[in-house]
Design brief:
Layout (H helix, E strand, L loop, with lengths): L2 H25 L3 E4 L3 H23 L12 H25 L8 E3 L16 H16 L5 H28 L1 H9 L10
Antiparallel strand pairs: 1-2
Helix pairs in contact: 1-3, 2-5, 3-4, 4-5, 5-6
Length: 193
């Protein structure tokens, strides 16, 4: 395994470390809305395949070596930079959401609309982080199957999840959320002229 594959795995480990305390905390909170569908479960399984299983096969076996491609070293270092940026967004998103974070579409009894920190300008910075890390993956794991697997599966997950999340937030927070939407970008800050 080369340095870039090692960095990829370190990035996954960091995501688990960042998310673990938030996961434990949110389990203790009473949920008043929980919208987990079969489609979401299927998409999550596909994400696990693209973001964990295929990279494992690439990193620890020779089963898909036929799909390897070459990249200049500078582009792989750019992939490491993207990964670090994605991890930073991931950490900041969790930190700012705090107890409001959940692994699926949920509203808790004491749920608040978070509009501070990174959420002041971007409504879905956690998805920003996942986009960035999905783009880093083929640069760190130069293989047509394992490198692009996560991105291919993340695209339908993203469009499904954000659409459902926006509906749920509008139903829960009403006008307050609609006003927030007007001031912020979805995954990038809204440009103001």
């Amino acid at each position: 395994m080369n340095i870039f594959a090692i960095l990829f795995w370190l990035g996954l480990i960091l995501q688990v470390i960042i998310r673990s305390p938030f996961d434990r905390a949110q389990r203790k909170e009473k949920k008043i809305i929980q919208l987990k569908t079969k489609l979401e479960n299927i998409l999550l399984v596909m994400l696990t395949l693209g973001g964990l299983v295929l990279p494992f096969i690439y990193s620890f076996t020779n089963l898909i070596v036929f799909a390897n491609f070459s990249l200049p070293t500078w582009s792989q270092w750019f992939g490491a930079f993207l990964l670090a940026s994605g991890i930073l967004f991931f950490w900041r998103s969790h930190l700012d959401l705090g107890i409001n974070w959940s692994p699926s579409l949920e509203i808790r009894e004491k749920h608040n609309l978070v509009t501070h920190g990174i959420y002041k300008r971007i409504r879905h910075p956690m998805y920003t982080s996942l986009w960035i890390m999905s783009l880093a993956q083929p640069l760190l794991l130069p293989n047509w199957i394992s490198g692009f697997g996560n991105l291919v599966f993340f695209i339908p997950f993203y469009f499904f999840r954000v659409s459902e999340e926006e509906k749920m937030m509008t139903e829960t927070f009403g006008k307050e959320y609609e006003e927030y939407v007007q001031k912020t970008g979805s995954i990038f800050p809204k440009l103001r002229f």
